[in-house]
Amino acid sequence: MSSAATRPTGPDDLWSVDEHLDDILATVRPLEPIELQLLDAQGCVLVENVTVPVSLPPFDNSSMDGYAVRVADVAGASEEFPAALEVVGDIAAGAADPVRVGPGQAARIMTGAPLPPGAEAVVPVEWTDGGLGEGPASGMRARSLAPEGAEGQVHVYRPAEARAHVRAEGSDVRAGELALKAGTVLGAPQIALLAAIGRGTVRVHPRPRVVVLSTGSELVQPGEELAPGQIHDSNSFALTAAARDAGAIAYRVGAVADDAETLRTTIEDQLIRADLLVTTGGVSVGAYDVVKEALSSVGDEDEPGGGVDFRRLAMQPGKPQGFGTIGPDHTPLLALPGNPVSSYVSFELFVRPAIRALMGLTELHRPRARAVLKADAALRSPRGRRQFLRGRYADGEVTPVGGAGSHLIAALAKADALIVVPEDTESVEPGGEVEVVLLG
């Protein structure tokens, strides 16, 4: 990679967590914008400002089922002395040519229907007899059940001020105003607004396609029976779920055996549908750690900035890591360690920010907080390593969950935070303050 020359290169040198992350974020760039249909753009980031072409609402309309009236005709109305008005017609939502309301007249009007010419306010049907002459009505009868309800007289028992129960044209947003800013993440409310102002498509950074694969001949698909020496593959499921949680379209590839040629072929096959590749396992120094072997001839070393660099980080868990670009499109690849906790912590620290950078987001990282350590004993950490321990966070306090082992999946499942112990700290006493990464 282009930035690797400025980083630690000796066999005994360690990269810091920040150096490794900076290297990743210096390489990963937002995906090229595309035009998507609204529902396909959910979760994506806008790349341009969107202005309002037509005011919302586009016309004065009723906020109630009731009667459109003139203010003077209902002034002083009461249950003892109701205003008697001639009903001149029905106005339903979507009506294109509503009737005109003149002196002494009213029109039945439905919620969302345009305020008719001549009318100045809407009185709710509960303020009237509903045209039935039987005292205050509890609701408006369907026209199909009472066609005469749009004719005859209605008695109004309360006065109404001008514009009462009327939604004014442009009271939500006006034509020419900014609807959504570039950089907005499109959730359901934003998509509703785009639809309301008539936008059928929108220009966005697409959600990145992330391919996750795990390596190891000992891995068996969940649901299959274990033979001696085998374990179920959990990493690929965990990281695929985590990638989706981060906003990606994630694809899980079944576990690949410890064979460099098989792994190499699998990775090459997956490049066609990947904006980012994530592998787990096979990056340490064991005789069967095949990811390094396989990627030595898959990368694009002959291209400027190409290839995958394997390095050791000053962190625990997650010391062995790999990062680079491969294939003709320089697809980013992050190679994570195989222990489940190491793999997940590495994802949160490095892969999640890369995914969000590909999406064009500016907030790349999980939120962090300061917390008081609630524990029975001091936390120990090796000097020179940034340690990430699992914990549960609540009300400004964090309690460790499980030990420091990188295989403790059950403890990870109970955690909602990572406790960060800095490189220069060897012990944190109960009651001391620590930094936590909030996972929830």
Characterization of this structure:
- With 440 residues, this protein is of the alpha/beta class.
- It contains eight helices and 28 strands.
- It has helices spanning 17-27, 71-74, 188-196, 235-246, 260-270, 290-295, 340-358, 409-414, and strands spanning 34-37, 45-46, 50-51, 61-62, 66-69, 83-91, 105-109, 121-124, 153-156, 166-167, 178-180, 201-205, 209-215, 219-220, 231-232, 249-256, 276-280, 307-312, 315-316, 320-326, 331-336, 368-373, 379-380, 386-394, 397-400, 417-421, 427-428, 433-438.
- A six-stranded mixed β-sheet has the order 16-13-17-21-20-18, with helices on both faces. It has a five-stranded mixed β-sheet with strand order 8-5-7-6-9.
- Strand 20 (320-326) and strand 21 (331-336) form a beta hairpin.
- Helix 1 packs parallel to helix 7 and helix 4 runs parallel beside helix 7.
- The longest helix is centred in the C-terminal third of the chain and has 19 residues, at 340-358.
